Amino acid sequence: MSILRTFVLATLFLLAAAALGCSQQPASQTAAKSAASAPVSQLDTILQRGVIKVGFDTFKPWAMKDKKGDYVGFEIEVARKLAEDMGVKVEFVPTKWSGIIPALLTGKFDIIIGGMSITPQRNLKVNFSLPYEYSGMSLVASRELADGRSSINDFNNPATSIAVRLGTTAAEAAKNFLPKAKILFFDEESQTIQELLNQRVHAVVASNPLPMNLSKEYAEQLYLPMKDDFTREPIAFAVRKGDPDFLNWLNNWVRVTMSKGWLQNRYEYWFYTNDWESLIM
């Protein structure tokens, strides 16, 4: 009886050991499978492709066309510098601002470099890098229709019409700061300017330096009611969610490039001088 019991126990032990051995794989095989199933970073895709595709829209002086038809501007320089430091070429993909986030999410380009402000609503759809610049909202007004007004409250009434660009933080700022005014939305920045110059609206709300530059360019028609911006917004790169490697590289690029003074230098050139105007005139 004891021999039979020993035989049965031994058999059960061998079967259990065999089953355990079949269910376990070598650590190297497990690691290989995990690596194979891990999502590929867009950073690796860009490096293999040799080109980074940049989504943007035209905002003066962030991005605009020069006399030759090439794109120039602060964001254009930033994109070229980022591509250079990555060791790849840059491909610009002009996109309407109102549809730029959906275009990023569907893979039409790798990144948005276009003066995009960080907002909680946008952050639900995309991930943002560290800010690489800050922008403020201002208001430029018609001398004929609004002369004498000198505060944001002077424009907050039903008799006042304000032009803004659709899908921008300027549009949000106008709705929040001027809830009683009549807000008119336009697809292009040039349309808001034309409405103002044709005296069909009292003012345009936009990111500086556009209001400041317009008040200088059309000094007889336009003026700045307020000296200071009424908002301060962080500007960052926007990428698709779920890619920590790409976001890590971008954040460190911002840290290093800012520490060297390059970003500050180019920001001063494009936003506080008129030296670049000969490129587009």
From TrEMBL:
It is found in: Cell envelope. One of its GO terms (cellular component) is cell envelope. The keyword Zinc-finger does not apply. Gene3D superfamilies: Periplasmic binding protein-like II. It comes from Pseudodesulfovibrio indicus. Residues 1-21 form the signal peptide. Belongs to the bacterial solute-binding protein 3 family. The lineage of its organism: Bacteria, Pseudomonadati, Thermodesulfobacteriota, Desulfovibrionia, Desulfovibrionales. Keywords: Signal. Residues 51-274 form the Solute-binding protein family 3/N-terminal domain. It holds the Pfam family SBP_bac_3. Its main location: other. InterPro entries: SBP_3_CS (IPR018313), Solute-binding_3/MltF_N (IPR001638). The keyword Signal applies. This is Amino acid ABC transporter substrate-binding protein. PANTHER family: GLUTAMINE-BINDING PERIPLASMIC PROTEIN (PTHR35936:SF38), MEMBRANE-BOUND LYTIC MUREIN TRANSGLYCOSYLASE F (PTHR35936).
